Amino acid sequence: MRYFGKEQLQELLATLGANKLRTALTGFAVGWGILLLVVLLSAGAGFNNGITETYRNIGSNTESVDLEIYWVTIPVNGHTKWSVPKFTESDMKFLAEANASVIRLATPVNNAYGLTLEGGGTRESARAIGVRKEYAQIQQLRMVVPGSRFINDKDELETRKVVILPQFYATALFGDAEKALGQKVLIKQIGFTVVGVCKDYYGRWTPLVMPLSTMRLLHLNTWDTPEHISSVRMLCPSIKTEAQVDSLKAVFVRQLAPRLGTSPEDKDVISLSSEAVSNATMGKVLGGIEIFLWIVGLSTLIIGLVGVINIMQITVTERRREIGVRKALGAQPKDIIAMILTESVIVTLIAGLAGLVVGVAIMAGVDHVVTTMGVGDLANSGDGSMNGILFLHPVIRLDTAIGAILVMLIGGALAGYLPARKAVRVPVVEAMRN
Description:
Elements: H1 6-18, H2 20-58, E1 64-69, H3 89-98, E2 105-119, E3 122-131, H4 153-157, E4 162-166, H5 167-174, H6 177-180, E5 184-187, E6 190-198, E7 208-211, H7 212-217, E8 231-235, H8 242-260, E9 270-274, H9 275-318, H10 320-328, H11 333-373, H12 398-424, H13 428-433
């Protein structure tokens, strides 16, 4: 006996057509469950894509490790509690040489806060960092205006007064970021030439970038003396896990203690962070969100499948006489099971595919709105406090769509199995008598 052919299709349509309302309500429950699953997973994909794009805009190298000088918590050698030890470039070079097998590149970074930035008749408050050209190998700034460039050797050697403006400040000062290139701006009443405009990944908190030597010459840095540095950016390809970061930090604390006059047990003297660890943590968070969305979506789908089970139970009860006749005519248990499973799977699949198509269409419309109106762009908040992409391309992936279809098929088969087993157990004589 064929499990499914023309006659079986006609019979299935006749059975479903005899109970139009019941079939429609059952299909709606399954379709609604799949639609919600698609919407939830697409929304999760949108958040994932947005955060991933923001990280890409920041341009950090996944091998980068940041060392920052914090404060003393164990007073020794004249250091008071919460005082900040003075860290110099010679200390940085010492660490790089002592840990050459781990540190492939190290470059100093100085910070300057509370700077007044003037240009185009507008004044803003900003912070700046002083760097060398090697900084671009670790923090790959995305230039947004053609002709922009990064700090070079001549800028550093000749202590040129040049600056790279984040897009937020370039637009705030000159109305259009492209107009800023080549213009003069005043930083603490000192004239600088804009040689580049970069993507502003933190809005107004994205720092201006200038040569480290210029910052030192003009005494713009935060420290009391120009030779001190705020932090060090390093390339450490072998540092991938949080345990490795902690181990490297312990080594740095011990090595720096004699040079800084701090206690080798004072772990708060420095802070060490790894881009690889941050990415891994973010990946775990996004993965957890996706799992949670799957659970919520599947819970809704299961409610629809429970409806399918109930409907198939009723169908089996109503067709007891027909099943008895089939068995009397020689139908095998596998034929009865196939008949019931086919009905269950077909109803589930058709309703599920309808829900999948509607869900994809809805999220395609959402994607269009997000893309054209920039709804997911944090820059549209208007206060310039942060710039990034929170929500981007909320469209379900192909593998996820295939997974949803498989869930429908498996769910439909499971929903029909229990009623099918019940149908097989119906005695022929009893079924025909009833």
